[in-house]
Amino acid sequence: MSATAMSTRPQPIIQVENLKKEYGEHQVNALKGVSLSIQPGEFVALMGPSGCGKSTLLNILGTLDEPTSGQVLFQGEPLFGKNDQAMTAFRRKELGFIFQFFNLLSTLTVRENVSLPLDLEDRLPDSERAAKVNAILERVGMSHRADFFPATLSGGEMQRVAIARALVHGPTVILADEPTGNLDTENGNAILKLLREISDQENGPIILMATHSEEAAACAHRIIRMRDGQIRHE
Ligand SMILES: Nc1ncnc2c1ncn2[C@@H]1O[C@H](COP(=O)(O)OP(=O)(O)O)[C@@H](O)[C@H]1O
Ligand SMILES: [Mg+2]
């Protein structure tokens, strides 16, 4: 590639270089040298069978776990090596998480669950916070359930609320671990369509979604296939 072409190429949001993860005494090599790069605007499916290392990779990118070796760059800066405070601030500002089992807090209403990431930013005025929560609930089609508790919702509705919570603070990266793994086909497809729409909107977050479903992966812009702790290049 010429120097000119390189300078017009956008900087990747995430760049992973030769990432390895070994778990403890059992000598499990969960990641055996993974390299990948994700550009602004991309919705990438991380696809592979159970145990291939998808969650391990997402957890490291989410700074919930540290690699044994290798490097992760976030917008060109090393992700690890910061102090705890800086790491927490990074996680709260830049990341949104979506899980298989939704992970909503059962004692809080829908509105309160979605508001949580904003409550950590104490400088935001109440009116602004409420407006952001209302707008994002509207976006995921859950405004009519704002004052309900999670236990009264269907799985698909719970996942919509979880998506709203992951998005409300305007993160750069959404990490979704098997987001349709606990939903029936119809609800799963609706959630995938919503994720794709969110990704396709202007200045939307990048989405990295772990899945073992070929059908779910097909909704992404690009599929990265993993097997046994490695990326498969076919
Ligand atoms: N905390 C842990 N301690 C030991 N081994 C682990 C731990 N977490 C995951 N593993 C192992 O690492 C491998 C990859 O797991 P995981 O990333 O959860 O795969 P996937 O999400 O693709 O199903 C598996 O062999 C799993 O048993
Ligand atoms: Mg997993």
Task: Walk me through the structure.
The protein has 234 residues and is α/β, with parallel strands linked by helices. Helices cover 35% and strands 24% of the residues. It has eight helices and ten strands. It has helices at 3-8, 54-61, 84-94, 110-119, 126-139, 155-167, 185-200, 214-217, and strands at 14-23, 28-38, 43-47, 69-74, 77-78, 95-98, 173-177, 206-211, 222-227, 230-231. The strands form two sheets. The protein has a six-stranded mixed beta sheet with strand order 6-7-8-3-9-10. It has a four-stranded antiparallel beta sheet with strand order 2-1-4-5, covered by helices on one side. Strand 1 (14-23) and strand 2 form a beta hairpin. It is globular, with a radius of gyration of 18 Å. The two termini are 23 Å apart. The mean pLDDT is 93. Magnesium ion binds at residues 54-55, 177, 210. Magnesium ion is lined by residues 54-55, 177, 210.
Task: Give a quick set of tags describing it.
234 residues; alpha/beta; Rossmann fold; 6-stranded mixed β-sheet; 4-stranded antiparallel β-sheet; 10 strands; binds adenosine-5'-diphosphate; binds magnesium ion
Give the helix/strand layout.
Layout: H1 3-8, E1 14-23, E2 28-38, E3 43-47, H2 54-61, E4 69-74, E5 77-78, H3 84-94, E6 95-98, H4 110-119, H5 126-139, H6 155-167, E7 173-177, H7 185-200, E8 206-211, H8 214-217, E9 222-227, E10 230-231
Parallel strand pairs: 3-8, 3-9, 6-7, 7-8
Antiparallel strand pairs: 1-2, 1-4, 4-5, 9-10
Bound molecules: adenosine-5'-diphosphate and magnesium ion (MG).
The CATH H-level homologous superfamily: P-loop containing nucleotide triphosphate hydrolases
Determine the oligomeric state from the structure.
Answer: single chain
CATH architecture: 3-Layer(aba) Sandwich
Distance between the termini: 23 Å
Q: In terms of per-residue confidence, which ranges show pLDDT below 50 for 5 or more consecutive residues?
A: none
Taken together, the total number of domains comes to 1
> How much strand content do the residues show?
15-25%
- Approximate helicity band: 25-40%
Average pLDDT figure: 93
